[in-house]
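HUMAN:
Sorry, I am quite new to this. Are you able to go through these amino acid letters and fold codes? The numbers rather puzzle me.
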Amino acid sequence: MSREACTVFVLDAGGTGFKFSAVRSGLEVVEPFTIPAAGQSLDEVLNKIISGFKMIRERCGCEPAALSFSFPGPADYESGIIGDLENLPHFRGGVALGPMLEEIFRCPVFINNDGDLFAYGEALQGFLPEINRLLKQQGNPKRYHNLLGVTLGTGFGGGIVLGGKLLRGDNSAGGEVNRMRNLLYPKTSAEDSISIRGIKRVFAREAGIDPAACPEPFGIYEIAMGRKDGHREAALKAWDEMAKALADALANAVTLVDGLVVIGGGLSGAWPVFMKPLVKYMNESFSDLQGKSVDRLEIKTFNLQDDAEMIAFTEKTGHMVKVPNIDRELWLWYDPVKKTGVGISKLGTSSAVAVGAYAYAAQQLGF
């Protein structure tokens, strides 16, 4: 079957909703739709997933070449078995979701983490190629090949793409940044501050209100921006705490990945209030035991949502160096400044997940 003829049914599954779509030749071919994820039993939730894929089949008018989708972990993604989920509590003890769908739809089924597929989609058709295009436009020979993608929402998810290949890990746990230690509350995970619940908890604490009366993150963002009445100092503090915890997690990850960083998820829309402090914290220095200042990162971080920093990041810098002690004259370009950039999703989170899911299936099927 040719790549052009293959349609992959995709799903972006979260704790509150199942968003279905279909992708052919890297483009969504139906209008995505969402089914609420909640159910009274495991059978009810599984039937929602089955019904969603059947609705996609009806709308496409074709059989799927594969089902490829994101689903929360922990899971054995390679085997298609879902473990004990916090936000979908009916999944307990190991649920063989992939094998069930293979039997029903008679096609291969590929399941990954949402952070993995988000990063993969942005690496192939979104953030990574866009930055490389701007570098080329500026006459800069530098090109990036590695990408860390993180999603900020109900939880804190992540995925890593190295040289165009998705890092899954040996235990289906590659890129699981949510389990990093929380800089601000070291006995907790980073996700306790980098999530919807983290934003609401800090706002309620700083505003001195009952957590039950706390606005949703978008409302807290509007207060922080001065667009809505409310406790602005508390709102700014909520986003600043998230930025500090996120900066530490990203700095730790970038130290290993050495690539660009793209941010998606529901909280990413608040970037105007958290991106500047995030990058500032990533560029701050350590102090060693002798009191000497040490850069937090070997790499300088740029805010790619800021026009001036985008220009500084993409413009050609460095100089030519001559190769010594050879019989011919040979010059090479050398830039001693190591750079990474942080920016917001170019495709939109769900679309990036869909593109990533399609690309992963295409790679596995060889089309």
